[in-house]
UniProtKB/TrEMBL annotation:
This is diguanylate cyclase. SMART domains: GGDEF (SM00267). Signal peptide: none annotated. GO terms for molecular function: diguanylate cyclase activity. It comes from the Bacteria. Residues 97-124 form a coiled coil. The lineage of its organism: Bacteria, Pseudomonadati, Thermodesulfobacteriota, Thermodesulfobacteria, Thermodesulfobacteriales. Gene3D superfamilies: 3.30.70.270. It catalyses: 2 GTP = 3',3'-c-di-GMP + 2 diphosphate. Residues 154-282 form the GGDEF domain. SUPFAM superfamilies: Nucleotide cyclase. Its EC number is 2.7.7.65.
Length: 282
């Protein structure tokens, strides 16, 4: 070798073999996580979307539950990205792991696609598509994971809403205008409830809300004001006032969601059938 010439660095076979073993172990770990995650998804135990997680847990001081499977996938993606950034493609070709590197890049793309798919699935699983309020799936999670978990530390009420004469809106103006009325009422709830309250569309023109941190005595007068005002909406033949019935009930420690909804629903129908009465509580 001439003086001053640089000796070419060639990795030893044992080093390449060790690196391949590490890649194989990481790949097997990722596949195991993938399979476990798919089982979780089939069971409908999907995590909350990041863009809604803060709002969902605003009503509680309970520590957010980590989704270990999803975190594992994200950590794996970070590890693989780090490996790809540090590895020289020419070196990978020389030591015979170019194919494995391509597989890692494909795994990263699959994880990114999965994250996008999950974001869509979580949103559709928890949100009403018309009004973008929470749906009953979200209400059920909130009821058991937040309300019942903190029932001895916080006051919770269940408020049930039903639009009056909603069928006549659909019959007279068409379902498009009925949908607009539902969207308008959802906005009424957003404007009038606290950020930590939990408004939800159950089905049709029936809505409910978990009211957080207030007693029934104090909230009843506010519910009566909402009941008296209703809300105005512009129709093809002019502006009309839309009224809605309200039912109220305390949520207690022995409740399940169906019991609480049944009481609030009974209260709401009493209000609807006796229009001269203000909202009552049961």
């Amino acid at each position: 070798m001439f003086e001053g010439a640089r000796e070419e660095i060639v990795p030893k076979a044992t080093e390449a073999s060790g690196f391949e073993e590490k890649l194989k172990a990481e790949r097997e770990s990722l596949l195991a996580a993938w399979i476990a995650f798919l089982e979780l998804q089939r069971a409908k135990k999907v995590p909350f979307p990041p863009q809604y997680a803060d709002a969902f847990y605003a009503a509680t001081k309970v520590k957010k539950k980590d989704n270990y499977i999803l975190n594992l996938l994200i950590e794996g993606k970070g590890l693989f990205n780090s490996l790809l950034e540090k590895l020289d493609p020419h070196l990978a070709g020389r030591i015979g792991i170019a194919e494995e590197i391509n597989k890692i890049a494909n795994y990263i793309r699959r994880i990114e696609e999965l994250e996008q798919e999950l974001s869509f699935l979580k949103e559709s699983f928890l949100r009403d598509k018309l009004t973008f309020l929470w749906n009953k799936n979200a209400l059920e999670k909130f009821f058991y994971e937040v309300v019942i978990a903190n029932i001895f530390e916080e006051d919770y009420l269940l408020c049930y809403f039903d639009l009056d004469k909603f069928k006549s809106i659909n019959d007279k103006y068409g379902h498009k205008w009925g949908d607009r009325a539902l969207i308008a009422f959802a906005e009424v709830l957003r404007r009038n409830l606290k950020p930590k309250d939990f408004p939800c569309r159950l089905h049709g023109d029936e809505f409910c809300a978990v009211i957080v941190g207030v007693t029934l005595d104090k909230f009843t007068s506010f519910a009566e004001e909402l009941y008296e005002k209703g809300f105005a909406m512009k129709f093809p033949d002019g502006v009309h006032q839309i009224k809605f019935s309200i039912g109220l009930t305390n949520i207690i420690a022995s409740d399940n969601l169906e019991k609480a909804l049944e009481r609030a629903d009974f209260s709401m129908y009493w209000c609807k059938e006796n229009g001269s009465l203000k909202p009552i509580r049961v």
